[in-house]
Specification:
Helices cover 44% and strands 20% of the residues. By secondary structure, the protein is α+β, with helices and mostly antiparallel strands. Among the domains are: 47 residues, no CATH class; 94 residues, Cation efflux protein, cytoplasmic domain (Alpha-Beta Plaits, 2-Layer Sandwich); 85 residues, Dihydrodipicolinate Reductase, domain 2, CATH 3.30.360. Strands 3, 4, 5 and 6 form a 4-stranded mixed sheet that branches.
Length: 349
Amino acid sequence: MPGTITLVTSSATGRHYSCGARAAPRRAATGAKDSLNMTQAGSDEVDDGREMRGSVEIKDRAMSRTAIAAASKDPRVTRTTGGFSRLTGRELPRADVTLGEDTIAVNLYIGVTWPSQITEVTESVHATVEAALATMTGLHVHRVNVLVSDTTLDTGPSPTSNTEASQPISPRPPTAGPAAMPLALLFGFALLGVAFVAGREFLITHGNLGGSPWIADAVSWISRLHWQSWMIAAAIGAAVLGLFLVFIGVKPRTKTHSGLGESASTVWATATDIARLCSAAAQSTRGVVDAHTVVTRKKIEVRVERDAAYDADRVDVGVREALAPVLSVAAGERRLTVKQSVAAPTRVS
């Protein structure tokens, strides 16, 4: 009995492929005539197989998406998707495709940015969509109607704002962890404890665990409380604790690093790093035996021990000159202070 084998891909792709071939006839039991008929049937079978190699069907949805993708290549074409536009079916760009026997007609709805010349945009979109559909389908594109349904103000940078756009944006400096992080951890552990107690109460209520319920006893104890003098202190303590929690919740993070270089710096150093750089630079000065630096938010204080054989003014000038390259990139708004002391003479045993 003749049969047909059909292979169909997923409908989401918009393409269906089918191929058919007649099943081979049953072999005859005996007889040359049957053998001849079978041979002839086999040759017909091969011919039919060559003629019915398959068919391709491209759905309107695939061509619609192709037209939308081609139109979206133009930067002057806006895209409106999601929300109310999706519910009402008025997303832009969208395309309505009509497929004839050998031709295609498309109604393409687009939105354009303002200011832009609509005739230039539509001509460009028309040519791009027509070429894309012709390349994909191999059919004749009979008509491409481009309809401008919306205009959107171009929010891109204007030519007059090039100087502002060229200014670098300073990144956020590294900061310490939030002050509320330790309390958040404690609160998390407390919630785990509450979950444990609630689970225990559940098991006790269902008879799976013995013992007295803690939550029920606590609620019963609270319900029997009457006014006592210690409640004033408890209320004040609760208010203070609440204010403290609010304070640490809104407290800004502490900056842990300072930027090196200009305002839009990308290299950061801690106060300890800056102090080490200053101490190393000060120790390279002639007459300085040892140096120690303290860096705060407002100042850099360098304490040096000089050799008694060197003049204090010369050492001060030398230290400031040695610190100048470091301070040019690391000082920021800090002021420099240099303090000197005479080093104790070294005893030779």
